[in-house]
Amino acid sequence: MFQAASAKLAQTLLVLLIVSAASFAFLKLAPGDPVSIMLGSDYSKASYDQLTHELGLDQPVVFQYGNWLADFVRGDWGTSYITNQDIFELAVMQALPVTLTLAALSLLIALVIGIPTGVLAALYRNSWVDVLATTLAIGGNAFPSFYLGILLIWIFGVDLGWFPALGFVAPWEDFWQGLWHLTLPAITLGAWYVGLIARITRSSLLEVLGQPYIQAARARGEPGWRVVWVHGMRNVLMPLVTVIGLQLGGMLRGAVMTEVVFALPGLGMMVTTAVLNREYIVVQAGIMLTGLLFVAVNLAVDQTYQFLDPRLRRR
Amino acid sequence: MQDALNITPVSGASQWKRRFLQPLLRQHSAMVGLAIIAVYVIAALFAPWLATHDPAAQDLEAALQGPSAAHWLGTDSYGQDLYSRLLYGAQLALIIGFASVALGLVAGVAIGLTAGLMGGRTEWVLMRIVDGLLAFPELILAMAFMAVLGLGTENVVYALALSFVGPFARMTRGDVLQVKNQPYIEAARLMGVSTAAVIWRHVLPNVVSPILVQAGMRVSIAILLESGLSFLGIGVVPPTPDWGLMIAEGRAFITMAPWISGVPGVALAVLLVALNLLGDGLRDAFDPTTQKDA
Predict the structure, then answer these.
(1) For residue A80, is it within any domain?
(2) What pLDDT is stored for residue B2 in this prediction?
(3) Confidence band, pLDDT 50/70/90 cuts, at residue B251
(4) Model pTM?
(5) SS3 call for B81
């Protein structure tokens, strides 16, 4: 157990190191010379050399990487040339919470709609419920989220006026206003997950419902809801968590699009704006942060298995 | 079941039929998907003949018009004909989708094969690079590559291809490791068959179907990412007829001219649904782990 845990830890550290090297490499590969960008159009050779030295760009690349990593760990991520804002502050304190809130709310909506749909589809297999659920699943999964967002803004934001079309209010400042502003974005992003969750719930439940222990539970005279929701669902959780974890890339992809469509100041918006403005250190911060997030979620998914499946705990 | 098929000595054509065509024909929804995709492919191939206008020709006099006899699907804010742009957009989406997946596949399979067959230090280094690629979500990776490469159609293909290398490489390596130690590979080696021939004739055929299934599913992701990048303004540049660009352009006019984003939006959604149906069908037909019902 201890050995497995330390092997896992070593592996994660290695991946984190690779993530950081890749993010560092990005800045080295990005077009343009950072020194001349910082100096502007008019500068002397001496001031150029001096700034190069001050930034440590005359050192070997390995040293530059080491310095950069040390700064990064200390939270010194540099300053944006355009807004003069501290990048750590911008990325971690401002953008990250927005993206996380959006993702959590979307996941919640997707689970609340997706699981019951999947259960109904499994219980009434091949009925109209099943057909509807499958259609919803395929449609929701394939529909481009940025177009769905535009449609929702048009119908519910502008035409009916039920929800604000754009903008963000932090739920931790004004809870109900924040929730109200996040409803349409969360539906947009959640729609993608609903189908997936419904599909996995349906197929894993169908698999489980044929097992002898379910028949035994039924034979004992346990009520139908208990058989499905207690005995059945327990075994659906594992594949469900796996899929949610595996599809995190899709979630982040959707989140970037959703944030841009609804003008939410999250990580996706930050990276998009930075790419458009050619502000590569901000892009780099975004890359590094999403990489870290990705690794962290995968690790968390791994840990949940032990929690969900008692067989894995004993080993 | 697979083994039985392999042993039966049949001619190449009928073996192909039995292994690939028949299982696929049994997937009805995949056939529906394929039919829809065929319509898009025809539209893309014959775009120059089917289009009624030059897709990039602007005519400000005719801007923001609804569907009419002159402009079948209406015009956008520059007066560009949406029907013609739709057709050329299909061309672009399909080309970028297939080209980026094909490039990513070739590079990924090459890395996976090298890593799986060479083993040792080469494998370690290659797989750590793959780990690095896989540690980022595809869109972020593609955005980063676009930032490095610069905007434009060709660079979208390269950026997407690079972001697909990781999954293909990891998958190929895993399959190669499984196949590598099979007795028939050892037998071929002992018979003095050259390494290249062993890879080409004995290793590749046994890893190819899961990889192709994966490729089929990636095409829809590629098209979604491509239009997404263009929508964000970091993909294809205007006035290229691209669905993502068209949706972005129509966004500002959604209340007064919903068709501007509606035409490419619906076209994109239908194509993605069709590609997903086909991808699911391919998986059900060829992935051994889901073949229970077959």
Answers:
(1) no
(2) 47
(3) confident
(4) 0.86
(5) strand
What are the tens digits of pLDDT across the range B136-194?
888 888 999 998 888 999 999 999 999 899 999 988 888 888 888 888 888 888 888 88
Task: Provide the domain count of chain A.
Answer: 2
Contacts of A46 (CB under 8 A, 6+ apart): none
- Residues from chain A contacting residue B247 (CB–CB below 8 Å): 144, 146-147, 150
Containing structural domain, residue A223: 87-312
| Residue finishing a domain among A74, A102, A119 | A74
Same domain assignment for residues A272 and A225: yes
Which pLDDT does position B164 carry in this prediction? 92
B236: left (phi over 0), alpha (psi -120 to 50) or beta: beta
Q: Can you tell me the distance from the alpha carbon of A175 to that of B263, in angstroms, rounded to the nearest whole number?
A: 37
For residues A177 and A303, membership in a common domain is answered with: yes
Based on the fold, state whether residues A32 and A53 are members of the same structural domain.
yes
Q: Do residue A50 and residue A97 come from a single domain?
A: no
Per-residue pLDDT at B13: 65
Could you tell me which residues come within 8 angstroms of residue A134 by beta carbon, excluding any fewer than 6 positions away?
Answer: A121, A199
Which two three-digit tokens encode residue B268?
């994109």
Mutation for testing the B interface, residue in A166, A204, A253 having most B CBs under 10 Å: A253
CB contact under 8 A, A275 and B143: yes
Average of per-residue pLDDT across A270-284:
88
CA-closest candidate to residue B227, choices B90, B74, B106, B36: B90
Q: Which residues contact B179 (CB under 8 A, 6 or more apart)?
A: B185, B202, B203, B206, B207
What is the value of ipTM here, to two decimals?
0.83
- Considering only alpha carbons, which residue of chain A is nearest residue B145? A26
Residue for token pair 């947009």: A188
Residue A184 in any domain: the answer is yes
Asked if B222 and B96 count as a contact pair (C-beta separation under 8 A), the reply is yes
Under an 8 Å CB criterion, which residues of B touch A?
128-129, 131-133, 135-140, 143-144, 146-148, 150, 220, 224-225, 227-228, 231-234, 244, 247, 250-251, 254-255, 258, 261, 265, 268-269, 272-273, 275-277, 280
Say if the Cβ atoms of A151 and B234 lie within 8 Å: no
The vertex-A75 CA angle with A74 and A78, nearest 5°, equals 120
Q: Do both A21 and A142 map to the same domain?
A: no
How far is the C-alpha of B217 from the C-alpha of B215, rounded, in Å?
5
